[in-house]
Amino acid sequence: MIVQACINGARPADYHPNLPLTVDGMVRDGVASIEAGAAELHIHPRDDSGRESLEAVDDTIRAMRRACPGTLIGVSTGAWIEANAATTRARIAAWRERPDYASVNLSEPDAPAVMAILDRIGVGIEAGLATIADAKRLIALPDCPPLFRVLIEIEEQDINKADEIADGIAQVLADAGLSRPILLHGFDATVWHFVRRARERRWSTRVGLEDGPSKPDGTLSSGNAELVAAAVAIFAPNRWVS
């Protein structure tokens, strides 16, 4: 049961004045987030132009490892990053500085192939489920490799509907007997609602500028470290749970 920091995501440069888009910026925010209480980091490496890139994973992970030794670091494999399935596969297979885990969106057509490559190169798989259909697809995969974790990531902005989706995903997993660590998180309007729900369910959660810029009181945060500190404060009564 942890708080993960998701420090940048696919957000554009003008999204927040302190959005980290360079390697140095990601290292700075990664260190600050860990100091604020984050147990892990989830990052979207960028190239020199600021564009998301799977080729940039090697340099970014290398720098993050130097600055944050012993911290688990994950990346995204989102299909939009390279916008070509063959390129995505090739660039993941070519990683030399490998992350500890990588998220794979089960809504994407090539998800099974990406999962197979990650398994082959020894990178943990964080299965991203945004809908009940995603959960059903996951449990129906004929050759699903071992999962590092299940990521229940809800984009629906209506709280009641978002809860229904999250509960439906969890029920599909339970009915299938898929017992893996779960990380629950929201997006924009639902970020703090799902931080609290994760605490209630004794699941992990994440916060950061990828998911939303605002503190629990709705005011703009100064950046990732402040968001992490707020989430850790919500989790504080249960911080003894491993």
TrEMBL record:
> What PANTHER family would the database entry show?
3-KETO-5-AMINOHEXANOATE CLEAVAGE ENZYME-RELATED, 3-KETO-5-AMINOHEXANOATE CLEAVAGE PROTEIN
What is the protein's species of origin?
A: Agrobacterium cavarae
Among Pfam families, the record links this protein to: BKACE
- Cited InterPro entries: Aldolase_TIM (IPR013785), BKACE (IPR008567)
Top-level taxon in the UniProt lineage = Bacteria
Q: What is this protein called?
A: 3-keto-5-aminohexanoate cleavage protein
